[in-house]
Amino acid sequence: MTRVFLISGLFSLLLGLFTVPSYGDIPFPETRGNAAAVIHADSGKILYAKDIDKKIYPASMTKIATALFILKKHPEVLNRFITVKQDAIASITPQAKKQSGYRSPPHWLETDGVTIQLQNKEEVSGWDLFHALLICSANDAANTLATACSESVAEFMKQLNTFLRELGCEHTHFNNPHGLHHPNHYTTARDLTRIMRECLKEPLFRQVIRTTNYKMAPTNLSQERVLNLTNKLILPGSTYYYPPALGGKTGTTKDAGKNLIFAAKKHGRSIITIAAGYPAMGELYEDVIALCEGVFNEPLLRRYLIPPTEKYTLRLGLLGKVSIPLPQGVYYDFYASEEEEHQTISFVPHATKFPIHRGDLLGHWVFRGLSGMQIRAEPLYASETIQPSITQKFRLYAKRAVTSYRTYIVLTLILLYYRKTRMHRHKSSRYYL
Questions:
Q1: C-beta neighbour count of 305 within 10 angstroms
Q2: pTM for the whole structure
Q3: 108-157, pLDDT tens digit by residue?
Q4: In whole angstroms, what is the distance from residue 157 CA to residue 182 CA?
Q5: What is the distance between the alpha carbons of residues 167 and 190, in angstroms, rounded to a whole number?
Q6: DSSP element (H, E) containing 274
Q7: What are the pLDDT digits (tens) for 263-315?
Q8: Which residues form the Peptidase S11 D-alanyl-D-alanine carboxypeptidase A N-terminal domain (predicted)?
Q9: Which of 312, 318, 331 is closest to 378 using CA atoms?
Q10: Distance between CA atoms of residues 405 and 414, nearest Å
Q11: What DSSP assignment string belongs to 224-271?
Q12: Phi-psi region of 309 (alpha: psi -120 to 50; beta: other; left: phi over 0)
């Protein structure tokens, strides 16, 4: 276990709790949908929220949960051919579905919904179906993948909902793998961003959501199919093309409105943005781009832990106190919206012997949040060679002498024990002769 040494004076101030001053809010636009959120993709910190816990209908944003569950629990289906079942492509008109009081199986397709026109007993690769799920939002691909993972779509949904609860999605319940409307198929912006964070950890997911078009291989019942991406933020030449966008998922139904969740990266910052319940896609794209730019235009701030100084006394573990030059001081850069309200800061030494050469790692400034978890660590390097002082030399020689003396005593005792044991064995052997 690494031991942390505290230093009095200026350093004791750094080790105490402090409150981060307010730097003002990011100038986010007034969004026009029912719910919206922006979170930091790495930390999960909420940067913007509008009705983040409000119940929403996700439409085809549902498919990111389906994709995540397949990647986490059933990745084997991507590497084999799947036979399409009639139940996976059964359909009903939206009017009949509503008139029945939604008593029809919730996974049934709608006649005006997006499909790749899969046919009963068609044999399709799971790899192609996965691309169809996320690129062109094919509802029949979602159902077919579900039947490949479980004995039925209904059983797949039970497993998916359990998986999402374990993920921490407390206000989500999905009735089907594609997102076609059902009153009991709902989620929140908070839960969807949590799902998206997990999705971004999967390399295949990140690859597919950036794919603008894809050709499915011919099957036993169909010629080659061409899939085109629905997310205009990723399409070069589109009115709403947004270069920082990494990809995501759109979703549209009459009851859900226009929806989008996606990831973006700029200036080294990765964020997830969701906007739901819009009447028009144009307004949706305009708002999410404005939300992203609000984050990406936030000024980078700098906080000095130690101002620039010619000499600063630092304790380097067993080496004792060392005076080091800090011509640039010790500082860190941060965005006000991402910094925790309180932190503790400590120095963990790394150097263990003299001389310390220029460029050697002296140790790390370790930042921890209120929970005690490490937020980050900033290295501190020697800007010049550091030789031990006379006192430190004396201590080192004394330590070596003590160590040598102890070693001498231990070796002497071992030798005496060895000689005694040998003499005893010699006497015993003479007796028996």
A1: 18
A2: 0.79
A3: 999 999 999 999 999 999 999 999 999 999 999 999 999 999 999 999 99
A4: 14
A5: 12
A6: strand 269-278
A7: 999 999 999 999 999 999 999 999 999 999 999 999 999 888 788 987 877 77
A8: 29-275
A9: 331
A10: 14
A11: -EEEE---TTSSTTSTT--TTEEEEEEEEETTTEEEEEEEEEETTEEE
A12: beta
Tokens of 86: 């009639």
Q: How far apart are CA 15 and CA 10, in angstroms?
A: 9
DSSP 186: B
- Cβ-count burial of 100 within 10 angstroms (0-12 exposed, 13-18 middle, 19+ buried)? exposed
- For the CA atoms of 398, 403, 408, 410, the dihedral, rounded to the nearest 10 degrees, stands at 150
Is residue 167 within 8 Å of 198, Cβ to Cβ?
Answer: yes
Only one residue has tokens 């039970």, namely: 158
C-alpha 134 chain-centroid distance: 20
> Which token pair is 322?
């060392």
266's CB contacts (< 8 A; 6+ apart) are 244, 292, 296
